């Protein structure tokens, strides 16, 4: 009997412990739920505060509306400040701000072939031309050496992709370009006169601007690489002399009169080139137009 009573007592104790654990677990769950609810409520209240608190942009808009409402009562200094801000915005949208960095000077002309216009943006698009004294020096020195014979070592190296394009002066580059036409047999096959070819090369040099990258040296780099590919790939046999003539001339002219700013800038700044070509590749169209303008000259037309 005693043993049975002890067993019943132990069972009751175990049942009591289990119920206590269950109650504790229920209490913990309730506490967790209440904490979650509190956190959610706090988040909601914080979001309400954020929504009710005006952002800097909203405050600025409110200030602008207030200023617009009381515009008649504002002092003249506010209008002066507004005009100063508009002028500053205009400078940032055009090339004029580059003068602060010394990238160009006042008085540089507009794109070659452009007409005088009254568009407010066009007067800000200024090109960095070569100095007349520099042009005279280059043309004079080229004329002095234009009949010179290039050494065989230079001829061989000129056909290689590893040719050092930066070791040559501008008048020497003109001589190397002349040699390319002669070396490929283009002058003989198409009857290109020496003087016409030289005038063409000088005019091309004249039409390249003093910009950091898309300048005359860059045009020579591209042309020299194409010249090397013609020999390396034996393109004369594969595509013929006419296509080789077109390739070489296209390389020389491919960035004529480049202003130093890309198409995105031309379009965003609403420059003359962007408006002229309806935002469709304005620079490429301009390079091609200048090339045809050069070739239209009787003394420069190597295709006649």
UniProtKB/TrEMBL annotation:
Any GO BP: signal transduction
Record-linked SUPFAM superfamilies: HD-domain/PDEase-like (SSF109604)
Acidic residues: compositionally biased ranges: 1-29
Binding sites annotated in the UniProt record for Zn(2+) 2: 255
PDEase domain boundaries: 138-304
Transmembrane segments: none
Molecular function (Gene Ontology), one example: metal ion binding
Keyword presence, Metal-binding: yes
Protein name (database record): PDEase domain-containing protein
Species assigned in the record: Penaeus vannamei
Taxonomic classification: Eukaryota, Metazoa, Ecdysozoa, Arthropoda, Crustacea
């Amino acid at each position: 009997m005693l043993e049975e009573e002890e067993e019943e007592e132990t069972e009751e104790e175990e049942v009591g412990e289990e119920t206590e654990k269950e109650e504790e677990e229920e209490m913990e769950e309730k506490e967790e739920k209440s904490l979650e609810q509190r956190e959610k409520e706090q988040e909601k209240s914080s979001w309400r505060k954020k929504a009710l608190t005006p952002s800097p942009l909203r405050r600025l808009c409110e200030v602008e509306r207030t200023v617009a409402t009381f515009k008649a009562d504002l002092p003249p200094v506010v209008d002066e400040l507004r005009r100063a801000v508009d002028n500053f915005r205009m400078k940032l949208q055009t090339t004029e701000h580059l003068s602060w960095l010394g990238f160009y000077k006042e008085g540089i002309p507009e794109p070659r072939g452009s007409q005088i216009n009254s568009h407010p943006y066009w007067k800000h698009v200024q090109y960095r031309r070569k100095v007349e004294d520099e042009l005279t020096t280059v043309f004079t020195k080229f004329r002095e050496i234009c009949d010179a014979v290039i050494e065989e070592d230079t001829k061989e190296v000129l056909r290689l992709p590893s040719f050092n394009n930066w070791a040559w002066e501008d008048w020497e580059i003109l001589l190397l370009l002349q040699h390319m036409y002669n070396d490929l047999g283009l002058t003989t096959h198409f009857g290109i006169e020496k003087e016409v070819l030289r005038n063409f090369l000088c005019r091309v040099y004249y039409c390249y601007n003093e910009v950091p990258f898309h300048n005359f040296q860059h045009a020579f780099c591209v042309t020299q690489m194409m010249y090397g590919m013609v020999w390396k790939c034996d393109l004369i046999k594969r595509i013929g002399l006419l296509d080789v003539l077109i390739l070489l001339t296209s390389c020389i002219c491919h960035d004529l009169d480049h202003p130093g700013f890309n198409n995105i800038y031309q379009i965003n700044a609403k420059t003359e080139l962007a408006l002229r070509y309806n935002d469709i590749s304005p620079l490429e169209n301009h390079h091609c137009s200048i090339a045809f303008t050069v070739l239209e000259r009787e003394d420069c037309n190597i295709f006649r």
